[in-house]
């Protein structure tokens, strides 16, 4: 980068009002990187001829090969407009759904966004996702409708048809924005209503249906995209042209003598030009006239394409070039490819960079215009409200809004991701041009060496002395050189991490000491621990989730290059070096300990694809572990973990993401050969209600069962000794020492309850933390907003758990599982045991008389273990309710504690309640003093008896689960495919082959494209995208996003039992069972026993080949 342009950018960084931080968002292949190329070319960084072909911001080799962007990268551009000069910090982001986490990291650092929509494909699934991400982060979007050349060259639409088509695209985009806006207004209004009146008060009848009032009061005119507002550009980035209505309004106001303001209002819309009256009039559609936009804009473009691309009419082209007043080189006129001439003409007549950057500077906000609502949202971590934060923290809001560059202003920086950079790319390691003095010095050294060589040749009469002397003289220098080279190599092979960040307040300088605040940092707790007025330079006590470090190096991000900076003022995007030890993926950096950590990023894609990784040579295991740590840090979405089996597992968002991560491990981070397992597909285990019909849809009650007696005999032997199962499904199990008996029943949870539990995992975790702190005698503060959410969650649970068998179930919840926050319930159905409720945080004070019974924790631990790995294939349970209906314990008499009883004492449910009432925390403390007398049945929660109780509870849960009809649950992707009518059948063929299910199919208005929405099991999705592309010759490509868990309908243990099933399926019933295939696949991978018959009824086989 030239010294002059770098100096210009550094000077502009101080003018906060003229800074624009923006990212480019779109669906995959809608032209983000091509448009970015045109904008980069406007600064002379790349040639304008290469714009669109070079894809400058796709710096990775696999990005260039695949033709898609895989990471967000930033570049700073300088743009003069009128009297002002602007600094544009542009971030290009990926459009592929696997890399949507990169979009989240980019959106957080920006104030505005350019949303690109393909003129042919219109609004696609990922377009809706990026619009929602921009909305959630409160940033202002502007619209570029790209690839308009496809309407002319591919679809061959007339200007009038193209105008109608463009109007429809604008309506589609505005419909998405309108939906987001409506939902926000509704939420705000609901909150206000709930604040005004009590939760159970009945509001007036007319108010309930007055849903539109909130929308009518709110002004949403600025939200929508409309060319006359100046926030829409029509473009063809590949051909280098783009325009807004403003440009044509200025051109025609000079030619036609109509004021610019009038043309701005009428160029887009139902207006036409009355040639006789020389007036612009309304009602073009009703009178069958050409709209002004078609007549003055599109007709000209169409005729240009017609002359250059379609007909190649040289004379007409020359006339047009002359009338437009553009200069075209002779070689462009002679070029065999008409697109070269077209881009040469268009890039001078309507340069796309000029149109887009002008719109950006005029319509997008500067860092000073940040909304206070956005600041409060960023500073409110988790469920905490802004007004509940400490006063010193709330005062920082002013620093945010002022975006001050003064020395006194606190430094606040947010790091959205860490990215790896090869050490060669760092500015300090780059080869710099030599100065005149250095060149003269090197010349002198070369002369001296040459003179020494000549002298050595002359002393060749005495070869021995010369030889030894030469060795003596040269050996040290060789040693020095060789060590120097080795040092250089180790330095080069090392990966450096640069933090991708933005300054929100203050000036960041090299060498500044700062606090690095982790996502769980609590400023209220830290301010109590730290002395008043302390700074990061002082020696301070250790505070959880806070560390101090020095900022080593600051970089200006210039796409593929980095430039070193001494300081960066507020409102700018920057790179910070040397932070890899302090920051894992994202963090907040500040000089004030009162600064809260920013809210976590909204990731749209969930990591779901797992592979186990191991090195080809076991000796290289340490390098693999180190490489996986680096990969975890470099990728915002990838997760790295070690399973209980000792396998190193990599979790990614999809197939393309997985491939990129494996390539990075091999070539950059570990630099070893690795072998990856087949993807580990997650399943869940569940139970369902007993089916009323058999496999051939016959009612079970009305037919003769052929194999029932045989089956019931088998069932008797299925349960081990000590396990009793009654006809209602209650499983009773006694511990090996015969001192405790547990009765458990399993029931399926309603689907809505399972979804509710899964969605509220963080709330359940908060409730669990509160219960634990209460047990320890501490008080955990929970803010009002969280309490409201928990109350709402409880209300929803009660509404879904209706009916006789769920009566008062919500108040009887003993625990959630697995990991104490999962989608399974443990119910306390013991009539005589009232334990503290899991909803203690809502009750405030402890309810008197509720105490924990001995070994309560053992029951919970057994339940947690049972739900973590089910009996079918050791996968977690989901949507299962386990109800404890019996718990009897026999303990030896406890001497002086109870004189009335001697010998053995039976502690049944009733007795335990009375004992528990004697002590506030149950009988555990009461028995404590007698532990030495009865070591074998100590009430110690870690003693051998508690272990037996845990094992018994686990086994009871597993047997209760097995007594119900068992099913597997498969992870499902939602799959959106855009395809033309001719390949629709092939798409359906691939989907049905892979167990997919079509949900919806609709034709896109104005095109021959169909949008197919389907669900597809994750287990069947590997290679799906490639197969679709192959079968449709690249005309359809799917977008897969993890959606939900779904029960696999077939029973993995099914055997024919009724006469009809025997007739239909045969005695063996060996047709493929999908659930059994999945289950056996998981069991094989985990090394569990798989019941398989390798050979059945084997016979002698004559080898035919011998007698030929």
TrEMBL record:
GO terms for molecular function: GTP binding; GTPase activity; ribosome binding. InterPro entries: EFG_II, EFG_III/V, EFG_V-like, EFL1, P-loop_NTPase, Ribosomal_Su5_D2-typ_SF, Ribsml_uS5_D2-typ_fold_subgr, Small_GTP-bd. Keywords: GTP-binding, Hydrolase, Nucleotide-binding, Ribosome biogenesis. The gene is EFL1. It holds the Pfam family EFG_III. The keyword Electron transport does not apply. GO terms for cellular component: cytosol; ribonucleoprotein complex. Residues 17-368 form the Tr-type G domain. GO terms for biological process: cytosolic ribosome assembly. Residues 899-915 have a biased composition (Basic and acidic residues). This is Elongation factor-like 1. Residues 455-478, 893-915 are annotated as: Disordered. It comes from Denticeps clupeoides. The keyword Cytoplasm does not apply. Signal peptide: none annotated.
